[in-house]
Every structure is written in structure tokens, then in C-alpha cells.
Design brief:
Keywords: Coiled coil, Membrane, Transmembrane, Transmembrane helix. It is found in: Membrane. The longest helix is centred in the N-terminal third of the chain and has 124 residues. With 307 residues, the protein is an all-alpha fold. It starts with a helix and ends in a 10-residue tail after the last helix. It contains 5 helices and no strands.
């Protein structure tokens, strides 16, 4: 009888627990679905970050290629500068040689004139043969032609060297422009590297948070709080450093002014206070000062004097 009385009670309790278990099962299903959605969102965000990182790496590789090209161009520019310096030296040498040739041409022309004068004198005085004179003149003409040909050749070489120098100057200007662009590219690369490092830190923080903390929660807030704390600390340090510097500056100015005043009172005008106090204070205040300072300024010599 007792067993028959207890069985229906157990059945009723089991029937009451079944809907509770179903409700808990539904809640667990909802939670699992929410967790799966959060995990999918995190996977999508991670994929987007990976794509961005790959794009940034490709951009960095392209920038590295451009930097290599700019370095090669810089080396070429150095070589061109070296060539330009050599060409300038050759120009200077050619100019010196042309000056020497001009001097030699002037000397030759003078010699020709002198020879003509001598020949005319000899022809008048001695009556030399005309054939010898013609030979001398022919030799002088040949020398003059050779000198003129050498001068023309040197002028052509000078023109070529000047054209080469102008082309080298233009190349140097182009290289300077490329170097400026290279510097700008390096600055952009540094900025992008900083952004990449921050993104990697955020990515690592997200991975750590997905492993340790519940899925769906990200440690961006903690990173931001840490960054804000560091910024506040830096601002406080700068604030106290500036105030300390101002205080030290004021103390130095005060000490310097005090030193100037003591130097003036000791060496330049020791009676400054005696002359200035009557102009500043009234007679009553001066009397009070005398009454207060008189015992300190008088010397007690009664004990020293003989009785």
C-alpha cells in the first residue's frame, strides 16, 4: 500500500520537472545560437583585419621596391655628380689650355710682325732673295692655320662639355626631386607601420580575449584606458616639469637681483639705505626704527676699558 501511494507522487514530480527541463533546454539553445553568431562576427572581423594586413604588406613591399629604385637613383646621382666634377675639371683644364694657346697665338702674331719688319729691313738693306721670304711666310701661315684649327677644335670640345654639364645639372635636379619624393614615401611608410603595429596589437588582444574571456567581448576598452592613462601621465609630467622650470628660473632671477643689490650696497653706495629711508619713511617711523635698532648697533666697551 505504501508503494502504491508513493508512485503517483513521483510521477507528478517528474511531470512538473519535464517543462522546466524543456525551458532550460530552450534557453541553452538560444545561448548557443547567440554564441555561434558572436563567433561568426569575430571570424568576419578577423578576416577583414587579415585582408587589411595583407593589403598593407603589399603596399609596404611596393614601397620597399620604390625605395630600392630611389636608392639606385641616388647612387646614379652620386656617379653623375662625380662625372660632373670630372667634366668641370676638364673644362677648367681646357680653359687654361685655350688661354695658353691664345697667348701663344698673340706671341706668334707678334713674332710674325717682327719677322715681317726684319724681312723688310733686310730686303731694304741687304737685298735678300724673295724665295727665302716666301718660304718664311709660308711656314708662318702654316703655323697660324694649325693654331686656328686647334682653337676651333678646343671650342667644339668646350661646347660639348657645356652641353654635357647642362644635361648633368638637369639630372641632378631630377634626382633632388626624386629624393624629396623618397623622403615623403619614407614618412608615409613610418606612419603606416605604426598603424600596422596598432592593428596587430588589437588583433592579438582580440585573439587573447576570444581565448580567455567570453566570446563577443573585446579588450579595446582596456587598451584605450591604458593609452589614456599613459597620455595623462605624460601630460602631468610635462605640467610639473614646466612649473618646476619656471620656479627655478624665478629663483635664479631673485638670487641674481639679490647679489646685485648686495654688491651695490657693499662696494658702490654703502649709504644707500641711510639716504633712501628718510625719503620713504616718515620721521615717526624713523625714530621707532632708531629706538629698536640702537641697542643692537651700539658697542658695549665698558668691560674692555680700564677702570
Amino acid at each position: 500500500m505504501e508503494v502504491a501511494g508513493q508512485d503517483p507522487l513521483d510521477d507528478v514530480q517528474e511531470m512538473m520537472e519535464i517543462p522546466k527541463l524543456e525551458v532550460t533546454k530552450q534557453n541553452l539553445d538560444y545561448l548557443n545560437s547567440d554564441l555561434e553568431k558572436d563567433l561568426q562576427r569575430l571570424d568576419e572581423a578577423n578576416q577583414v583585419l587579415l585582408r587589411k594586413i595583407q593589403e598593407k604588406e603589399e603596399a609596404i613591399q611596393s614601397l620597399e621596391g620604390e625605395t630600392a629604385l630611389s636608392l639606385a637613383q641616388a647612387n646614379e646621382r652620386e656617379e653623375l655628380n662625380h662625372i660632373a666634377s670630372e667634366k668641370e675639371e676638364t673644362l677648367r683644364n681646357l680653359e687654361s689650355e685655350t688661354a695658353k694657346l691664345e697667348k701663344s697665338n698673340k706671341i706668334l702674331s707678334r713674332n710674325v710682325v717682327e719677322l715681317q719688319k726684319k724681312i723688310s729691313r733686310r730686303h731694304k738693306n741687304d737685298g735678300l732673295n724673295k724665295e727665302t721670304l716666301k718660304q718664311m711666310l709660308a711656314e708662318l701661315k702654316v703655323r697660324l692655320q694649325k693654331s686656328t684649327e686647334s682653337c676651333t677644335k678646343q671650342e667644339k670640345e668646350l661646347l660639348k662639355i657645356e652641353s654635357d654639364y647642362q644635361s648633368l645639372h638637369q639630372l641632378c635636379e631630377d634626382q633632388a626631386h626624386y629624393i624629396k619624393k623618397y623622403q615623403e614615401i619614407l614618412r608615409q611608410m613610418e606612419k603606416e607601420k605604426e598603424v600596422m603595429l596598432l592593428e596587430k596589437e588589437v588583433f592579438k588582444a582580440q585573439n587573447n580575449s576570444s581565448q580567455i574571456v567570453k566570446p563577443g567581448s573585446i579588450l579595446v576598452e582596456t587598451i584605450q584606458s591604458n593609452m589614456e592613462k599613459t597620455i595623462i601621465k605624460k601630460q602631468k609630467r610635462i605640467f610639473w616639469y614646466r612649473h618646476f622650470r619656471c620656479l627655478v628660473f624665478m629663483v635664479m632671477i631673485f638670487i641674481r637681483l639679490l647679489g646685485y643689490a648686495l654688491f651695490h650696497l657693499q662696494y658702490i653706495n654703502p649709504d644707500l639705505l641711510v639716504d633712501a629711508l628718510p625719503m620713504v619713511m616718515s620721521r615717526d617711523t624713523l625714530k621707532r626704527l632708531r629706538e629698536v635698532l640702537f641697542p643692537f648697533l651700539t658697542l658695549e666697551v665698558e668691560e674692555v676699558l680700564p677702570h
